[in-house]
Amino acid sequence: MKITKDYKGLERQENGDYILIGDLISDENIEIDLDDWLRVTGRIESKKTIITKKTLVSGCDIKAGCGIEAGCGIKAGDGIEAGCDIKAGYGIEAGCGIKAGDGIKA
Question: pLDDT tens digit string along 9-20?
Fold first, then answer.
């Protein structure tokens, strides 16, 4: 699943961020190709990998069966969990726990 500015339900905010109301769930990879942050009000879940060039923000959990990678930051209202690595160019923040099968790098 590829998320671009034309993705159904995606809205651009005045500050340039994108917002998606609800959950973002896929059995495949989630590749986010946007020029600013993506904020998802619900949870973000992929059975494979989640990749974004910018910052990824979730109101709930962020879970990936494999890895999570962000060019900037990753922030979740609850937990962040990945079967393998979690990588972010800047920071990683979770309201609850952060769990990775392998490494965490920020």
Answer: 999 999 999 999
